[in-house]
Amino acid sequence: MSATVTTAPSGATIHRPSTRARLMGLGSVFGKAVRDSRGTALALGILFAVIVVLTTSQIVAEFDTAAKRALMAAQLSALPAVFQGMLGEPIGIERLGGFISWRILNILPVMYGIWSIVALSGTLAGELARGSLDVVASTPVARRRLALEKVGAYLVAVAVTILILGVWTYVAANAFASLPGDEVSAGAVAGHMVLLYLMVLAPGAAAFAVAPFLGRGGAVGVGALVLFGGFVVSSYASTVSVFRSVEGASYFHMTAAHRPLAGAWDWPSVGLLAAIVGALLLVGIEVFARRDLLVPSGNRLPVPRVRLWVLGPFSRGLGERFPAALSWGALLGLFGLVIGSSSDEFVAAIAQIPQMVEMVQRIFPDADILSTGGFLQLAFFQEGIIILGLAAAFFVGGWASDEGERRLEVVLGTPIGRAAWALRSAASVQAAIAITVAVLAVALAAGTMIQGDDPLRPVIGVAVLGLYGMALAGIGLAVGGLVRPSLAGPVTLILGLGFYLWDLVGTILEWPSEILDIALNRHLGRPMIGEYDEAGMLLLGAIAVGGVILCAAGMRRRDIGR
Amino acid sequence: MPPIIQAERLTKRYGIHRGITEVDLEVREGEVFGFLGPNGAGKTTTIRILLDLIRPTSGTARVFGVLSSGDPVAIHRRIGYLPGEFTLYDRLTGSETIEYFANLRGGLDRAYSKRLIERLDLDPSRRFSEYSKGNKQKVGLICALQHRPDLLILDEPTAGLDPLVQQTFNEILFEAKEEGRTTFLSSHIISEVERTCDRVAIIRAGRIVRLDTVGALREMAAHEVELRFGEAVPMALFADVPGVTNLVQEGRMVRMLVTGPIAPVVRLAAQRDLVDFVSREPTLEEVFLAEYETSGRAAASASPVEPAAGL
Q1: What is the extent of the structural domain holding A242?
Q2: Local confidence band at A240 (pLDDT 50, 70, 90 cut-offs)
Q3: Which pLDDT belongs to residue A414?
Q4: Is residue A308 assigned to a domain?
Q5: Rounded to an integer, what distance in angstroms lies between the CA atom of residue A152 and that of residue B95?
Q6: Most CB within 10 Å of its CB: which of A131, A509, B131, B308?
Q7: Together in a domain, A248 and A135
Q8: 0.85 surpassed by complex ipTM
Q9: Is A465 domain-assigned?
């Protein structure tokens, strides 16, 4: 690892770190940060590269003539924005590049954005909270340089991910090109990847800028607001009038016209985004360099300090997660309130287009889609699935930290059995999800009542979302109890995002339903419009409860503190 | 010779909470300086200001004559720091951790770090997360010592170490002192400070309440004196001697506490049939506890008294 050898004034032989160690090893703060993130960077790059290649091959096989492509493009472009929803405006989708851009790459800044928030909110604030930053900051590495090296390493990691994706997008588009105009140039791929790179960084940069003030938890909240708020506002601005007034603040909206793979270029918007991202990162670096190295406090919701929170493992676990449960519920509830109270606008817009009503009724036979519930099913439920998955992973991760940070050993030093602790503390995770869902349900019910509609179905729909979140948490808890706590949060997160991607990609690739149905989110029915999947709900409930029981069984058997 | 550490009216407030108040300190080159105080007294706050991890509300701190917030990198280049509470990187092994922190200081002196690893009896092949508390402390100590810093700043350095390793650690401190290096040792383990330090500052509720050599602090404290006579001697004989307190008589024996010079008591006792004389020097622990009791009483008497109910 060390290359240069020099002799110090004391006569000691000093082995200086090699260039390789400085760039990707233990030779510098930058090198270590690159070393720590290389696995994730490669995995994320390869994952989406595989999705791009598979999707491209399937599309080319299915739409093998210009006429089929044109028909598909016309149908998709005719959909109102709410049906296009999370994928944005279809631009040039009759060509391969345009289709890849619309179907796969438009969702990528959301998926990678979560990584960006987690990484950039924690790179300094997380290390400060752990206690290792004091030691690093007492070495002759100036604070500004320390922050710069940490951020620089993450910029490199994202660049590697995007590079992998870009290379395979270029290869796939040109290898499978079957119609005139399918080929894409290296310049177009590069132009698109520059946009993706900046969009991935944007929410993380916002989190990084506020982390010295708010700590890691608050920074994650701000990053999530920038990411999901920007995404939802941009996706539904044409349907929800409230969003139209703020869509200019969304970086998704700002850069929507830059889709080089589809032949649309808008470099000024990309330049503006680059300037914003750069400024946010510089703010974070400068603030870190100037402020005291103290873990910020007082940024959590003010929860009354009541004895209720210290009655036992259940109440302690719930007390620990209660502020976050309220925050998650309020965040998602605000979105639900806006969407719910905008349903009349949507219904009115759809009703003016008889062909559209006919098409909607073909897609959802026997369902009153022209209602608040129908609108919520279309515009709210899918986003709810992702956010409930994230919330479940957050709560399960918090539960696992009891063991990871060795608090559990103190608790188990008291006369409480392992299984009893596991049952009660795991139940507190499920209760936290229930609180999130309850807050969300109140907001959504308020939104529908503003429209003069019956809130029952939306509330039941939210309950189904909650059941899904609990099922994901149940799996994470079971893994944490049976195997090791450090896996619990990541498994929940991977499943939450994985099920969504499985459904998305599998539907595009027309996988058999037996394979597609592996994704738990395919067993939720369409509860907002009164279509219930009773078997699915039973399955989700069984996983939620069974996970807690398996967790307790595992905790009884395995070593503690792994 | 300019002091290695110089703090002048150093004050730090965390919002409404007290940090430290007008702390004045000077640590001289080559000495082992003890910083004594109970939990929460302000030891770590002082250290973190010296390292520019936090900035003072008022006052100044200089290390090697450099303002701590002016050029912290120049200071950090010459110091080795062990925090009181820390955790390092769970996935790195002990040797990787040691190498990383050596690299951040320019490079690794393999021979010296290997010697430290052997002396502190550390298995460097295990991951940091697998280490016991004591072994984590050893890794932290090696990271602080391996570049032979001019100034060691150690916050509770022996926490979690077994007695044998504590002994080795003391030897390393003495070697550093012999080489002319300076140590600033923060602790609440009084025996450790007494054993290793030249001078000691006692901090209480954010303020320095005593600063002197270990010997002088002992001198300032009361000696426990026991006089045995051939016949019963009235203890009132000693009551007016300056510095005498806590007089107790048990038959032909008189016990007392003497603060300051002991000679007047000896002269007075010698005029009687003195059979035996025992004087025990106070330990630093007794000095420390006495200081805290005194300061505590002073603080209590200075506190406003709440009026009784009904007044």
Answers
A1: 22-299
A2: confident
A3: 80
A4: no
A5: 26
A6: B131
A7: yes
A8: no
A9: yes
Please tell me the total count of domains within chain A.
2
Model confidence at A178, in pLDDT bands (50, 70, 90)?
confident
- Say if the Cβ atoms of A140 and B55 lie within 8 Å: no
Is residue A151 located within the same domain as residue A201?
yes
Residue B298: pLDDT band by 50, 70, 90 thresholds? Answer: low
The highest-confidence range among A78-82, A382-386, B228-232, by mean pLDDT, is: B228-232
How far is residue A65's CA from residue A538's CA, in Å, rounded to a whole number?
Answer: 45
| Residue that is written with structure tokens 């709560």 in the block | A395
Which residues touch A358 (CB under 8 Å, ≥6 apart)? none
Size of interface A-B (CB pairs under 8 A): 97
**Structure tokens, B270:** 């010698």
Assess whether A417 and A346 both reside in one domain: yes
Q: What's the mean pLDDT when you consider all of chain A?
A: 87
Are A15 and B109 a contacting pair at CB < 8 A? yes
- In sequence order, the β-bridge partners of residue B227 are B254, B277
What's residue A493's pLDDT?
93
Instruction: Specify whether A349 is located in the same domain as A263.
Output: no
In a domain, A385, yes or no: yes
Buried b (16+ CB within 10 A) or exposed e, B20-56: bbebebbbeebbbbbbbbeeebbbbbbbbbbbbbbeb
- Contacting residues of A for B73, CB less than 8 Å apart: 140-142
Give the E-state strand segments of chain B in sequence order.
5-14, 17-27, 32-36, 58-63, 66-67, 79-82, 151-155, 182-187, 199-204, 207-213, 223-229, 244-250, 253-258, 274-280
Contact by Cβ (8 Å): A40, A118: no
The shortest CB-CB distance from B83 to any of A2, A8, A135 is to A135
Q: Which of B99, B103, B113 is most worth mutating to test chain A (most A CB atoms within 10 A of its CB)? A: B103
Distance CA B12, CA B55 (A): 8
Does position B305 have pLDDT exceeding 70, yes or no? no
Task: Tokens for A439, please give them.
Answer: 């807050």
Residues A281, A340, single domain; the answer is no
- Strands B66-67 vs B58-63: parallel, antiparallel or unpaired: antiparallel
SS3 B213: strand
* A216 vs B139 pLDDT, higher one: B139
Same domain, A187 and A331: no
- Is the pLDDT confidence value at B299 over 60? no
**In Å, what is the CA distance from A557 to each residue of A56, A116, A544, A553?**
47, 37, 21, 7
Instruction: Taking residues A490-507, report their average pLDDT.
Output: 89
**Domain boundary pick from A273, A299, A325:** A299
Average pLDDT over residues A18-45: 94
A18: pLDDT strictly greater than 60 = yes
Which two three-digit tokens encode residue A368? 């009153």
What mean pLDDT do residues A78-89 have? 63
- DSSP class of residue B282 equals P
* Residue A2 in domain: no
Q: Which residue of B has its CA nearest to A292?
A: B54
CA distance A177 to A95: 9
Are residues A256 and A117 part of one domain?
yes
